[in-house]
Automatic annotation (TrEMBL), chain A:
This is ABC transporter substrate-binding protein. Residues 1-18 form the signal peptide. Gene3D superfamilies: Periplasmic binding protein-like II (3.40.190.10). It comes from Shewanella holmiensis. The keyword Nucleus does not apply. Keywords: Signal. The keyword tRNA processing does not apply.
């Protein structure tokens, strides 16, 4: 009898643990000013505010962890109830995750250290140049796939220095974060030579995210767009097209 | 710019010229005048004959237009675009040769001609669809126009979010409509209309799914004799799936190697990727004979297995009158999976863009259907599939059909990448993009574009002497497009009410059938149930849309399977393989 009680208690504990972990999502983001940054226990940025609003709207619990992008993507691919954001959604990545989005829209530009460098008419004009990007970046993957010479760093800030020192010809970066990185490093390359790509960024979750959770999050996101919240949030962080 | 950098970029003279001229401009992103200013602007006539840059004229050869006509047409663009000069617009399309040419060469030509700077972005077709959907959801002006497959026409006309081509043609009394646009010359316009005849999209490029085979191997007397001895009929263009299967086995197992190289009787692709879904939804089910007779798509059941009644989708599963999990669909998926054993091992890990070029290796005898957008990749000199004279050792022909297929049904798939405009685009930007769209499909441009990407859109190009001379080098592509077959190979039709979301179900379930998680029957049952659930959801949310889903009640499958047409009952008939010589096989195109 004692054995059966023990077994029941054990099963119940395992069940409640499973339910709790199923309800609470682990959200992984990465440092990318001004979208997400962590100083001590304080997390801030567009992504942090967005997550809070989305999960309140959906009535779901979450925790946010900071990891490098590449690692975050791998964790969301291998661990259930785990998501990573903001991720550039593209055809190559489509089948590896369940997607909630669009979360953000980013424009990407090509920056040059040389003020005399004239604007480029098309991306193809940079076909034989070296272009800096960072590991895990969708734009880096995009340029590589199209045959461009892409030089990858661990984080985007390093590209600013590389461009300044002439180790790369161009730097391909999201316009808003490029502005913030240049400001933080007191370097100013001016306007991009071409704005060549628009990316839809989304939250990429483990492929087996329950359909009910997926629906709650997508419905909540729709509500945030309809209420005007998303437009206000984007505007607050200088994301206007 | 450092000179070394210039050299590194290998800028061609016209590009260099453009960059130099750009440097003299203050900003290429200068906002264009608003549409109100445009309306007030008295547009000069075509008679304003300022010079067209010489490199553009040289680039756009040949053309079906005379030199004077081409000059006049280009002048029209120059003058009509005047109010928009300095504007930067964004368009996006999938990544195939035709669009690469547009993005890298024609966008520059348009810029030099008009001063409108076009960022013509290339990406995967699935990304194009996601971006189009995102613009609808967010309301943000992400792009000013999309080149989007006409497979979405069913979504577009129900969405209420599209500025139709019919509207653009008549905007401001047709002020921005190219006088020589000649809509009747477009071969794919019937694919881009809604059930009521309104034109939603304008074709920019078209390619078809055709049977591909090594004509040199098929004409080899030794192989012919061996095949006849083993299978009891002539080696030729297969007319049914049994013949295709026999030929696949013959080359993969019986012949096995040619001149020391391992050869295969079948090629396909099956990587988990959105393109896996398109492989099946585009053509496998239609060729098997899943749907009903009717063009461009079966009525009342189309090749997605969706039944419509008075333009309302009513279900995809057999229990609701659809055919997505019908015996014909199961048969199609069984053959798709079984035949992978005749393909190279790599096939299971290839996607659409990777597999299309695989035939160039010279190891494949036949492919049940192959996207003709890759003609350019298989006609390059020095390939194992091209002879010393530049003549392909391969041909395209009508694809063989499955045992559920009947006369009057579509015979294959045709992709019609088409200009699509969203209502939430600012009007001045939309009109500038409309001008660019018309430039890319104009008679000044279209023949040259056809020769670069082999994705014809105009009858006048197809009937030109230039294409007659080119035809021996294209393996039968010209013969296909000059025949009535171009109307029988059709895209996904207007029955599919939410292509962006429903397309994702295909690869999800088909991949689980390929990897053995589900049998074809189990996978299709689950898939059909998912499609029905989605249609039922749309029935709730599309309340104000015309032709919204109205779900049929669930009935016993035997009810629907005993009705005439699709869904068709199990066909256990054993079919004998049948082949025809190439000349006879292509007669069905006339």
């Amino acid at each position: 009898m004692f054995g059966i009680k023990f077994l029941l208690i054990g099963l119940l504990s395992m069940y409640s643990l499973a339910v709790c972990s199923a309800d609470k999502l682990t959200l992984i983001t990465y440092s990318e000013v001004p979208f997400a940054a962590q100083a001590g226990n304080t997390k801030q940025g567009l992504v942090i505010e967005f997550i809070d609003a989305l999960f309140k709207q959906a009535g779901l619990e979450y925790e946010i962890l900071f990891f490098p992008l590449k690692r975050g993507m791998s964790m969301a691919e291998s661990s259930v109830n785990t998501c990573v954001l903001p991720i550039e959604r593209n055809q190559h990545r489509e089948v590896h995750y369940t997607w909630i989005g669009p979360v953000m829209v980013s424009r990407y530009g090509i920056f040059s250290a040389s003020p005399s460098q004239p604007p480029l008419v098309s991306l193809n004009d940079a076909k034989f140049a070296s272009i800096g990007s960072f590991l895990g970046s969708g734009i880096g993957e995009y340029l590589t796939q199209f045959g461009y010479q892409v030089d990858l760093t661990n984080n985007d800030t390093l590209n600013v220095k590389k461009l300044q020192r002439g180790r790369i010809d161009f730097w391909a970066a999201d316009l808003v974060s490029a502005k913030a990185i240049m400001r933080d490093n007191d370097i100013h390359f001016g306007e991009p030579k071409i704005v060549f790509f628009t990316s839809i960024r989304a939250m990429a979750c483990h492929i087996d995210l329950p359909m009910a959770t997926q629906k709650r999050l997508n419905d909540a996101l729709q509500a945030l767009y309809k209420s005007g919240y998303m437009a206000q949030l984007h505007q607050k962080y200088g994301l206007s097209l | 710019m450092k000179l070394s950098l210039l050299k590194k970029f290998k800028l061609c003279p016209p590009i260099f010229g453009v960059i130099i001229s750009l440097s003299a401009q203050a900003q290429i992103n200068t906002p264009a005048p608003k549409i109100s200013q445009v309306i007030d602007h008295k547009l000069t006539s075509v008679a304003d004959n300022t010079a067209i840059p010489k490199w553009i004229i040289q680039e756009l050869q040949p053309s079906t237009l005379s030199s004077d006509e081409q000059q006049q047409e280009l002048q029209w663009f120059k003058s009509q675009a005047e109010p928009f000069a300095g504007l930067t617009i964004r368009v996006v399309s999938e990544h195939i040769d035709t669009h690469v040419y547009e993005s890298e060469v024609l966008a520059k030509a348009f810029y030099d001609l008009t001063g409108i700077h076009v960022i013509h972005e290339l990406t995967g077709e699935d990304d194009v669809i996601k971006k189009l959907s995102a613009q609808m959801v967010t309301g943000l002006n992400l792009y000013d126009a999309y080149i989007n497959d006409s497979d979405l026409v069913g979504s577009h006309f129900r969405s209420g979010a599209i500025t139709t081509i019919s509207e653009l043609l008549t905007f401001k009394s047709g002020q921005y409509t190219l006088p020589t646009l000649d809509l009747n010359d477009f071969i794919g316009l019937q694919f881009t209309r809604d059930p009521f005849g309104v034109i939603y999209q304008l074709p920019d490029q078209q390619f078809a799914n055709l049977y591909w085979y090594r004509s040199d191997w098929f004409e080899n007397p030794s192989y012919k004799a061996q095949f006849k001895q083993q299978y009891g009929y002539e080696l030729g263009v297969p007319q049914n799936w049994q013949a295709y299967e026999d030929i696949a086995r013959f080359f993969s197992d019986d012949i096995n190697t040619i001149e020391g190289v391992r050869v295969y009787g079948h090629m396909d692709y099956a990587a988990i990727d959105p393109s896996l879904g398109w492989r099946i939804s585009d053509a496998w089910l239609s060729m098997a004979g899943v749907g009903d007779a009717g063009l461009p798509n079966g009525l009342p059941v189309d090749e997605w297995g969706i039944r419509v009644e008075n333009c309302h989708p009513v279900g995809a599963s057999v229990s609701r009158g659809g055919a997505l999990n019908s015996p014909a669909a199961v048969y199609a998926l069984e053959k798709y999976v079984d035949w992978l054993e005749y393909a190279p091992d790599e096939a299971k890990s290839l996607t659409f863009s990777e597999a299309g070029k695989w035939l160039a290796t010279g190891k494949i005898a036949q492919q049940i259907f192959w996207y003709s957008a890759f003609v350019g990749d298989l006609t390059q000199p020095n390939l194992p599939v091209v002879d010393d004279q530049g003549i392909p050792k391969w041909k395209v022909a009508p694809s063989p059909v499955g045992k559920y297929w009947q006369k009057g049904m579509k015979s294959g798939y045709q992709d019609a990448g088409s200009w699509t405009f969203l209502k939430n685009t600012p009007k001045d930007r939309q009109i500038a993009a409309w001008l660019y769209a018309q430039f890319l499909v104009s008679k000044s441009v279209s023949l040259k574009k056809t020769l670069v990407g082999f994705t014809p859109i105009r009858l006048s190009d197809l009937e030109s002497d230039v294409m007659t001379k080119k035809s021996p080098y294209l393996g039968g592509l010209v013969e296909f497009y000059r025949s009535n077959a171009r109307n029988v190979w059709t895209p996904t039709g207007s029955n599919v009410p939410d292509y962006p979301n429903m397309a994702g179900f295909w690869w999800l379930y088909v991949s689980k059938i390929v990897d053995g998680t589900y049998s074809p029957k189990q996978g299709l049952d689950a898939f059909a149930a998912r499609v029905d659930a989605h249609l039922a959801q749309l029935e709730q949310t599309m309340v104000n849309s015309q032709c919204a889903p109205k779900m049929n009640p669930i009935k016993d499958e035997s009810f629907w399977l005993s009705q005439p047409g699709s869904p068709k009952p199990l066909n256990q008939q054993v079919i004998k393989g049948q082949t025809l010589p190439y000349e006879e096989a292509i007669r069905v195109w006339n």
